[in-house]
Structures are given as C-alpha cells and as structure tokens.
Amino acid sequence: MTNQSSVQFEDSELASYLGSKNAQALEKVFGYTTVGDFLWHFPRRYVEVGELTPIAELPFDEHVTVVAQVVDVSQRQMHSRRGFIFEVTVSDELSSGGQELKMTFFNGYQARTDLTVGTIAMFSGKVGWYQDHLQLSQPDYAVLDEASQADPRPIPIYPASAKMPNKRIRDLMGLLLPHLSEDNLPEFLPEEVLGSHRYPERHRAFLERHAPREIKHAYIARQRFAFEEAFILQLSLAERSRQLGTQPAIARPRVAGRLAERFESQLPFDLTVDQLQVGDQIAADLSQAHPMHRLLQGEVGSGKTIVALRAILQVIDAGGQAALLAPTEVLAAQHFASIKKMLGALAEPGLFGEGEGTGVALLTGSAKTAQRREALLGIASGETGLIIGTHALLGDQVQFAELGLVVVDEQHRFGVEQRDALRAKSGDALPHTLVMTATPIPRTVAMTVFGDLDTSTIKRLPAGRAPIQTHIVPMQLSGYRQRLYSRMTEEVSKGHQVYVVCPRITDTAAEQGVLLSTYDEPSGQTMSVEAMTEQLAGMPEFAGIRIEALHSQLDSVQKQQVMDSFARGEIDILVSTTVIEVGVDVHNATLMVIMDAERFGISQLHQLRGRVGRGGLPGTCLMSTWLDADHASVLRLKTIESTMDGFELAEADLAERREGNILGVQQSGRQSSLKELSIIKDRTLIEQARNHVDALMKMPDWEEKYPRLVEIAGAWADESTKEFLNKN
User: Fold this and answer.
1) Residue 562 DSSP class
2) Distances from the Cα of 398 to the Cα of 223, 361, 402, angstroms
3) Using CA atoms, how far apart are residues 304 and 407, in angstroms rounded to an integer?
C-alpha cells in the first residue's frame, strides 16, 4: 500500500463515513471537512473511572471521581461581575440514603446543555466547602450512557461547544475509528526512530489517542504525535537549509590590507574571545559561494554591532554593499551615528572598492527629499558601501549596485515579507544574511523558529561593563515610594541621567481598556507617561530638573529630537514607554525606573535594564509594583532581581508563556499548523527530533529509502507554512 492511500484517506470527505448531516454539523461548528481534520481533533484530557468515591465518603480538599445522577439544576446571576453560576445537584446511588453533592459551573453554557435532570455522568474535581456543604467547583465531567457506564476505559473529554457536546463528538468518533487501519494510515517515520522511543505505529496511535485502553496509552500516543510534528518540522527546516546551501551567492573573503584590517587596527580596545570566535565563524561563511544565514545573539552591550561591522567591511572590501535594517528610525539613526564615529576617516568614500574608505548612508521614511536623493544616488552608484535604514530600504526606488550582505537588527520586529523584499534586491545571487538579536533565545526556540540558521552566541560582556543592581520597590509602602523618587534626584545631582519607563502613554479610558484586556489580574490604574511626567514636574524636589517624555505617538522628528537631546545630556529624566527598549545607548544614564513592572515580561524587563550601566558607571534598575509580595507577578520580578544571566531568564520567560506566536504566527498572519507539539512543554522531544533528522540527512540515499516521509513532509507544510519558512 503506498503512502498515497494515507493521503487519500485523510483527505476523504467526512460525509463518506459519518453521513452528510453529521459532516455538515462538524463543518459548521469546527470547520472540519475531511477525515484528517476530525482525526486530529484530539481530546484535551481524559476522565478515568478508577475507584469511584461514594459521596458520603468524600475527603475534603482532595481530587475525587464520582458517578452520579443529576437530580436538580439551577442558575443565578453573579453580583460582582457579568455572567451566571450554573449549579447542579447530583445523587450517588452507591451511598446509603441517597447522599447529594453540589457542582458549580461559572458561565457553564456547556454544562447547562449537557447536565439535565436524569443525566448520569462521571464528575472529577477537587472537593471544596461552600455554605455548609461539600461541592465540586468547575469539575471535569463526562456524560455516560449504559454502554460507557459498563466500560472501565478512560473517557475522552474533547474541545466541545453547545452545538457539538462531548457525547456527540465521542459518538461520531466512534463511527469513524473502526475504519482506521495500517493500510489507510501507514507509518512513515523511520522504523528505527519509532522503535528507539517505543512509540506505537500511526494508525494504532490514533486509536489510542481517541479510545485508549488505559490512560497511559493515551499519553504515549500524544507523545508520538508531538514527536511526529517535531520531526517533520525539523526535517522541513533542515531541507530548507540544504536548499539554501545549493543556491548561489558571491563569495566575499577577507582581503588583506583593506578597510576591515584598518578598522581593527584603530580600535581603542581589544575584542573579546567571544567576539573574535564569532567573527571568525561569520568570516568563514562570507567566504563561501552560497549564502550565509546566521543568527547572532548576545546580551545588550555584548558587542554585536562591532562583530557585524567587521563582517560589513569584509563584504565591502570584496566589492559588495551591505544593508543594515533597523526596526525604528531612532535605532537606525543611532546605528548611523555610532558606526560613523567608530569608522572615523574610513567612512569617507573613495571610488567604490578602490578608495580609502566607503560611504555610509542613512535612509528612513522621514528623510528630506534632498537627503533621500543623495542617499539613493550613492546606493545605486556603489559609492555608498553601507546603507542603514528602516522599512524605507524596501522601497522600489532603492536600487543597489551590488548588495552582498543584509544585517537585520532585532529580526522579530520585521515581517517576513519585508525582509524578503530587501533580499530580493540582490539579483540572481542571494546576499549573505546576518540576523542580530539582543533577546537571548532558548535552545528549543532557536531550533524551532531559527532551525535553518546557524547560530552564534556572544555570552561574555566586554571588560569595563559596570554591574547593574536590580531591586523591587513595593509602592504600597510610603517609605519605599519616597525613596524611589529620592534615587532619581540623587542620580541627577551626580550629573547622571535617568530613564523612567511606564506601561502606557496616556490615562484615556480606551487605552486603559486595551491594557486591562492584555494582562491578567490587573493591579488597578497603572502609571502612564503623561501622568508620570506631570507628577514629577509638580514635585518640589524635581524643580530645576529637566524632564521630557518620549513615546510612539510623537512623530519621527520629535522622537529623534528628544533622543538626541537626551544623548547630549540636555535632558535629565526621560519618561518613556518601551520605545527605548531596543538600541538606545546613552552612557551617562545610570538609573532605570520601571513603573508597574509586573506589566512587562521577563525578557522585556531584562532588555530595559540593559539600557543603563553602559558607560563604565554602575547601573541601577528599580522595578516598582503595587502588588503584594506573594503575588505570582511579583515572584516573576524576583526572578529578574536574582540574576543578570539573560539565557537563564529566557528559559524562565519561555516556561511562563502561553503557547502562541512563538512560531511566528504574527509574522505569517496565520495560526500555527502544529496541533500537538508544544514548544514550551516538549523541549526534550524537539531536541530528540533534531538529532534524528541530523542523522537522517547524513544518509546519502535517505530520500530514496523513505519516499513516504518525503511525501508526508511535503504535504504537511501547507503553502503558508512553506512561505513562512522560505522567507524567515
């Protein structure tokens, strides 16, 4: 039987197996039209019969399972918030005297549909106490018929709706499962890979996932499907990397005695071991006749820009041009100023590829007409070797003489289409690509999202970087609150500068509404840039201190003026949103105050505090919060307080995140096609899959040996997934 039979079976219309009425219902509720769609509608959990507990013997504060009949239902509105409480009273015939137990469901739309008087169901939950009686709050349940009451197997609980309750889903799945066989769902993972983990074959895994004999079999089947997705994803990325290696690029080897060597000789400091090692990796990549695709990650201030500049000069020495793409105009302008300063006389252009230096141009959306015309001319003629800019570099008017290298700073801030548009400007030969990020990336995310990029890491900070002390400030204590403001004035009195970061711009109700819908358990009215600026200006101790605001609602010219003034020391305290999170580099800034710090994520907080202590002066980060010390969000702040290791914090950040756009959902404009694999929970599976794929790709005849795997991998990555992988 060929793999085509599997594809045909999974692509078959549901009506062929379930009848047109049932198929139409599934399509209306879930959008499912094929057998494969419905087969991958996996249970979210299982209720296991085990040893049932009589109601009269329920232990308080323990998890129990009971089988009981609904004898009464009621509904009442909640007073403190919108919604209703649906209460169910059940009776357990196993206990003498017909003992009763109450069940409580908040906004229990599904329970209201399923649990009518007379219904027999299995309930599973933790025993609590309410108004002098025991109850189960929000229990899991499964409605039982006579057959299932006699069947000791675990009962699957599916994602359901009022129009498609769990029992109906189980019944429909029961109609479909008898059609599954090894012939129409043949295995495609290599036998040795499957055997090494003792995973069931594919058709058996579907059966065990939907109708397990024991609950352990369901979880083994779940592992198998998660591994399958990890394996196919890693195979797609590996194949993508292999294809990139066959595409043409112009080799840009080091050229002795030119700009790169002259630049290194004039540096006033020694490069770190990490910078030299990573630089050698990049230089070797650039010397190849196929395109480099490398991810460069390192802490804020670790010297990524120096490493990138060495690569840029190597490409210019070899006759190419380089484009540095920045996410904001502020950061693009700062890159332009700092690189011009580092290059000195080497930023004075001669004839392209022959003179003493090279042109460096800045191109942003707010550039004036004359400045823009001059930049475009230098780019097109080749006189300008390095072009720094934002999305403006993607415009049709921008024509490169010979684009050899694209450096993307903070890659996650650009859509894949935008990056692809710039890369397309290089003609037939692809440019080399270097992606930089100051956000440490956990290993599994790097393997999954950046699996087709080689990764280089700068872990050690350059000598001279001052330590940053981080402290939580409990704002409900007036002494701490006053000390927060005193620390600001103390730093200013020493001639230093201060950042104050707020989670939002204004106090408008609309913006507050957006904020409250974005974060869990809001701590009330949060501080805004507008309110903080006004508050500081009205406090006597801040009289004579120069305070300015910076946020995204300012136009690009205003933002640049404020940042330039802060960089020149003309502003003492900059009150800002996270617009300063990436790339703003002011060496005289020594204090970072983050208001309502619980509103920010771990990686974001780490990025923010990296803005201080960059000029050899000790830095301090104060994270304010009105929450109690034992609140979960404060525990997260304590994690930040306890370590400066960005990679350790990245793992902690990943551990607390919900599954979501880690695979680039926002960039690709679609939901991830992964159904079982969790980047957060399945780290071990991802690493195992990567190792198996690496071994597979080393086999010269693997495609001939595993044709089913090739076909399945091609069918798995739908067009939008392929587009995402190709452009990422």
Assistant:
1) H
2) 49, 12, 12
3) 11
Q: For residue 128, what are the β-bridge partners? A: 135
Using the predicted structure, report yes or no on whether residue 388 has a pLDDT greater than 70. yes
pLDDT in tens, 26-60: 999 999 999 999 999 999 888 776 556 778 888 88
Distance between CA atoms of residues 675 and 230, nearest Å: 11
| CB-count burial class (<10 Å; 0-12, 13-18, 19+) for 626 | middle
Decide if 618 contacts 591 (C-beta within 8 A).
no
Concatenated DSSP letters of 34-47 = BHHHHHT---SEEE
Three-state secondary structure readout of 152-175: CCCEEECCCECCECHHHHHHHHHH
Contacts of residues 256-265 at CB distance under 8 Å and 24 or more positions apart, as own/partner, are 258/313, 258/317, 259/313, 259/316, 259/317, 259/346, 259/357, 259/358, 260/310, 260/313, 260/314, 260/317, 262/346, 263/309, 263/310, 263/313, 263/342, 263/343, 263/346, 264/310
Confidence at 7, pLDDT banded by 50, 70, 90: low
Residues 9, 184: Cα–Cα separation, whole Å: 6
Residue 331 reports pLDDT greater than 90: no
Q: Strand pairing partners for 13?
A: 34
Higher pLDDT, 625 or 395: 625
Task: Give the tokens for residue 197.
Answer: 């983990």
Q: How far apart are CA 640 and CA 561, in angstroms?
A: 32
d(CA 177, CA 411): 45
Extract the tokens encoding 450.
């950046």
**What is the identity of the amino acid at 540?**
P
Q: How far is CA 486 from the centre of its chain?
A: 37
Burial (0-12, 13-18, 19+ Cβ within 10 Å), 96: exposed
85, two tokens? 């409480």
Q: How much of the chain exceeds pLDDT 90, in percent?
A: 37
- Residue 125 carries which side chain, given as an amino acid letter? G
Q: Give me 557's structure tokens.
A: 């010219």
CB 498 within 8 A of CB 492: yes
3-class SS of residue 258: coil
Pick the closest to residue 68 from 48, 87, 54, 80 (CA basis).
Answer: 54
Q: CA–CA separation, 669 vs 270, rounded Å?
A: 44
User: How far apart are alpha carbons 6 and 707 in whole angstroms?
Assistant: 13
Tokens at 547, concatenated: 């305070």
Contacts of 395 (CB under 8 A, 6+ apart): none
Average pLDDT over residues 401-407: 92
- What type of residue is 704? E
Provide mean pLDDT across the span 236-244.
78
- Cβ atoms of 291 and 249 within 8 Å: the answer is yes
Q: What is the DSSP letter of 528?
A: B
Strands (E) across 379-453 are located at: 384-389, 403-409, 432-437
Reported in sequence order, the residue ranges of 253-319 that DSSP labels E, i.e. its strands, are 293-298
The pLDDT, as a whole number, for residue 633 is 87
Q: Give the pLDDT band (50/70/90) at residue 189.
A: very high
Pair type for strands 497-501 and 573-576: parallel
Question: Which residues are CB-neighbours of 450 under 8 A, at least 6 positions away?
Answer: 295, 435, 441, 728
Residue 52 vs residues 63, 97, 127, 392, 408: alpha-carbon distances, Å: 11, 17, 14, 67, 60
